[in-house]
Amino acid sequence: MDHPVPAVATALVHTAAATERALSLGSWSFDPPVILALLFATLYCWSNRRTVGPSRTRSERRRRHFYFYAGIAVVLVALASPLDAYSEQLFWAHMTQHVLLLVVAPPLIVLARPWVRLWRVLPLRARQSLGRSLARGHLTWLRRFGGFLGAPLPTFVLFCGVVLVWHIPALFDATLESEWLHALEHTLFFATALMFWKQVIDSPPLHAPMGDVWRMAYLIGAMVVMWILAVVLALAPNPLYAPYALQATRPGGISALADQQLAAGVMWVPGSITLVLALFFYLNRWLSPEPTKPAALKPAARLASDH
Q1: CB 274 within 8 A of CB 74
Q2: Do you find a cis peptide bond into 205, omega within 30 degrees of 0?
Q3: What is the DSSP string of 188-231?
Q4: What is the pLDDT of residues 221-275, one digit of tens each?
């Protein structure tokens, strides 16, 4: 019987050495999602050069640029770095990819508020034509569909459903056998995560309709779903995913069951960090007293001056 703690410790030591050997240019890959991420970064950079803003907002723009390019960099690390090569042999490396695509890259992109800049990349005539169609009601079905998907409850169900469904063993095993299915999995992870974090983080012109209490409940609900998945992986008596279970050897020499338990730890702890940080941010804002508005002091000031 495997003893998980010593096995995991051994895995970390051996994998650190293996990672150093893997950091070479040949270990980087450029799959379709990676090319798409690079394309968005290029379009954002191009739009930024075409946009002129007031000097007083320069520091704010630099901060948003940092968030956007950091988010793109996280996507590249998840899908194009040596981590992607390791994900074919180690389940915990594959789970690290999922965590980066679900709770690291998307909130950075949402914080960057790149929507207007990416919209400006379209030719002026195309923007005018689409704007007129929306204004005249020609694309009412599209507005309603977008409004439905952008609502908090459907977004929450989609996000949690995508996370759980793609980790069903039969479907997960299929992604390891098909490149296009694997790319679809990662694309859905990232897309639904963007929708999820848009409900949590204000990202104008997109509107986050929930108050602080509901945002906290939203974050807690997502954490519970991810913890349930982690517990199932950690307590399973046997490896759940055949491609990993059937491998004769693995980097670090760990067993398939220890690899799965380490993956559960990745989902449980690193996968919760961003959610917990956002939760405490809104908890602190909810508990903090509201600043006194100057307008509310004007009547009192007038009364004082009358006496």
Answers
A1: no
A2: yes
A3: HHHHHHHHHHHHHS-BTTB-----HHHHHHHHHHHHHHHHHHHH
A4: 999 999 999 999 999 999 999 999 998 888 888 999 999 999 999 999 999 999 9
Sign of the C-alpha dihedral computed for residues 246, 160, 144 and 114 taken in this order: negative
Question: For tokens 């630099």, what's the residue?
Answer: 62
d(CA 200, CA 182): 27
Q: Computed from CA positions of residues 45, 46, 49, 54, in that sequence, does the dihedral angle turn out positive or negative?
A: negative
Contacts of 244 (CB under 8 A, 6+ apart): 89, 90, 91, 256, 259, 260
In this structure, are residues 81 and 34 in contact, taking their beta carbons and an 8 Å threshold? no
pTM (two decimals): 0.79
pLDDT digits (tens, 9 = 90+) for 50-76: 555 555 577 888 899 999 999 999 999
